[in-house]
Amino acid sequence: MTPISRRLALAQLALAALLAACSPQADQQPAALPEPFRGVNLTGSPKYGKDFRLPDADGKERSLADFKGKAVLLYFGFVQCPDICPTSLLRAAEVKKMLGKDGERLQVIFVTVDPERDTPEVLRAYMNAFDPSFIALRGSSEQLAKVAEDFKVYYRKVPTGSSYTMDHTAHSYVFDPQGRLRLALRHEQTPQDYAHDISLLLKAPH
Questions:
Q1: Is 45 helix (H, G, I), strand (E, B) or coil?
Q2: Structure pTM?
Q3: Which residue of 98, 103, 116, 149 is surrounded by the most CB atoms within 10 Å?
Q4: Is residue 151 part of a domain?
Q5: Is 139 helix (H, G, I), strand (E, B) or coil?
Q6: Short-list 94, 98, 93, 97, CA closest to 108
Q7: In this structure, what are the phi and psi dihedrals at residue 125, rounded to the nearest 5 degrees?
Q8: Residues that constitute the known binding site
Q9: What CATH number does residue 111 fall under?
Q10: pLDDT by residue (tens digit) across 127-185?
Q11: Which helix H or strand E contains 181, and what residues bound it?
Q12: Which DSSP string do the residues of 9-31 spell out, in sequence order?
């Protein structure tokens, strides 16, 4: 079993546990929501980035304009992440399925915070392990720092013996089909929460 396969298997167990723990019982009613979105509503916030420009694994520069008409789920992570990143990507794949036909209008984008080790070949294999439609972006250290600053994303190299790991922000950003930043979704939220909010954005009038 490859390292990616092992991390994927562990993440599948973690996601299954999250789904089981958050499944409502037959005699329970869902709690009333204070607002339509279950994530953090960032609509109109001037504090966060409105766009990004980074190369994908094939070296092509990508920005929000490439995904007009789709909701974009933007996540920052790294391939050697032991659990949080693979769990997040597995959840994204599950959300895409939960959306049914609307899942075709969801673009998942993974921005590596570890460009030193996450080569284009590694990133392509990692995305394919979750969903071939997922796109990985890999910029230079300077490009990454700029995008991370724009989106208030924290990341830091942490030494571990002869190697290192990365400490980083674990939430996801969601843009609506018109390219407007709308939501921050927490890692602790369920696939149902993600699908609920993204579905609202996909069905909302322009």
A1: coil
A2: 0.84
A3: 103
A4: yes
A5: coil
A6: 93
A7: -65, -40
A8: 81, 85, 168
A9: 3.40.30.10
A10: 999 999 999 999 999 999 999 999 999 999 999 999 999 999 999 999 999 999 999 99
A11: strand 181-185
A12: HHHHHHHHHHHHHHPPPTT--PP
Instruction: Assess if residue 32 is contained within a domain.
Output: no
Instruction: State both tokens at 77.
Output: 């992570």
Q: Which two tokens stand for residue 189?
A: 């939220």
* Residue 152 backbone zone (phi > 0: left; psi -120 to 50: alpha; other: beta): left
53 inside domain: yes
Extract the tokens encoding 87: 């769990």
Q: Rounded to whole angstroms, how far apart are CA atoms 162 and 166?
A: 14
Digit-coded pLDDT (tens) for 92-133: 999 999 999 999 999 999 999 999 999 999 999 999 999 999
Q: Does residue 31 belong to any structural domain of this protein?
A: no
Q: Which two tokens stand for residue 158?
A: 């942490």
Beta-bridge mates of residue 175 = 72, 181
* Interaxial angle between packed helices 84-98 and 3-22, expressed in degrees from 0 to 180 and rounded to the nearest 10: 60
Which residues, 6+ apart, have CB-to-CB distance to 31 below 8 Å? none
Count of domains forming the chain: 1
- Residue 160: phi and psi, rounded to 5, are -140, 90
- Binding-site residues for Cu cation, in ranges, read 81, 85, 168
Tokens found for residue 188: 């602790």
